Amino acid sequence: MIYTVTFNPAIDYVVRLDAPLEVGEVNRAQGEDCVLGGKGINVSGVLAQLGCESVALGFVAGETGAWLERGLAAQGLKTDFVHLESGMTRINVKIKAGQETELNGAGPAIPESALQQLEAQLDKLTEGDILILAGSIPASLPQSVYERLLVRLQGRGVRAVVDATRDLLVNVLPYHPFLIKPNNHELGEIVGKVLTSDAEIVAAARTLQEKGARNVLVSMAGDGALLLDEQGQVHRIGCPKGKVVNSVGAGDSMVAGFVAGYLQSGSYAQALRLGTACGSATAFSLGLATKEKIDELLAQL
Ligand SMILES: Nc1ncnc2c1ncn2[C@@H]1O[C@H](COP(=O)(O)OP(=O)(O)OP(=O)(O)O)[C@@H](O)[C@H]1O
Ligand SMILES: O=P(O)(O)OC[C@@]1(O)O[C@H](CO)[C@@H](O)[C@@H]1O
């Protein structure tokens, strides 16, 4: 079974403006939508499109948390969230006004007792299961919290996928995650350098592999992606053609496609193709990638 964990789920409030955003002024929206989000939850959503069952784990709180949980159930996704006693699941504001501006909330505090409930759920994972840890953590938690979960899973044959930034990601590397997916900017932040060429990206990816990551997938938005696989082979792919509508969740969709592609084919090249088709299918859609759009783009790659 595949399990996704979203420490900090969100309702994404997507606002469309027909003029540039004016900071400090009253801006009137052309329209708005509420999308159920958070990185792990998005991964579960795209996995479902690809016919892969998953269970979405994580923490929800308050009325917004109840809304999220109801909505995901209505979409047919399996969830098993820990319910926090105080606070509310955040609402992240995504402004589409030519450029995309995002305002992501801090999220509710997660007490030690709730964290232990998640650990008890993860104790049931067995050989062959896949655990996907994706997204930020609320400010109340230390940057070692993903590491804490992976320490507990060691030696049980569970493959971990981690999509996180900075120390949250770096701290898990000694536990040999099956896959990490920084984008090129996040990778640059980790190695302390702006990465401008494929050669620099490969070199930076190798440093993370030397620290323990098995496969390093570096996404580069409209410039495609680069995979350094566990055999040390570099795969480079561009993007299919299309009009970008909303790139929120493109990276999560890529993670879902990569994992599903690898499970279906055992081939890293094929996993990268499906990951790319899923990432771009989301970038070219209002919401997350659909099976139909993914298949259309896969044919171009
Ligand atoms: N502008 C775009 N045009 C075509 N494909 C895109 C575009 N943006 C993203 N994608 C696809 O999605 C993949 C992941 O995108 P990106 O590098 O933006 O991930 P990310 O930074 O993790 O995104 P997010 O945090 O918004 O989910 C890319 O490798 C590409 O396949
Ligand atoms: O604040 P985080 O956890 O880093 O990112 C949260 C988020 O931006 O990620 C998803 C897109 O990848 C959105 O659904 C959500 O709002």
Automatic annotation (TrEMBL):
Its EC number is 2.7.1.144. Residues 7-290 form the Carbohydrate kinase PfkB domain. It comes from the Bacteria. It catalyses: D-tagatofuranose 6-phosphate + ATP = D-tagatofuranose 1,6-bisphosphate + ADP + H(+); beta-D-fructose 1-phosphate + ATP = beta-D-fructose 1,6-bisphosphate + ADP + H(+). Pfam families: PfkB (PF00294). It is an enzyme of class 2 (transferase). The keyword Kinase applies. Pathway: Carbohydrate metabolism; D-tagatose 6-phosphate degradation; D-glyceraldehyde 3-phosphate and glycerone phosphate from D-tagatose 6-phosphate: step 1/2. Keywords: ATP-binding, Kinase, Lactose metabolism, Nucleotide-binding, Transferase. GO terms for molecular function: 1-phosphofructokinase activity. Belongs to the carbohydrate kinase pfkB family. Catalyzes the ATP-dependent phosphorylation of fructose-l-phosphate to fructose-l,6-bisphosphate. This is Tagatose-6-phosphate kinase. It comes from Faecalibacterium tardum.
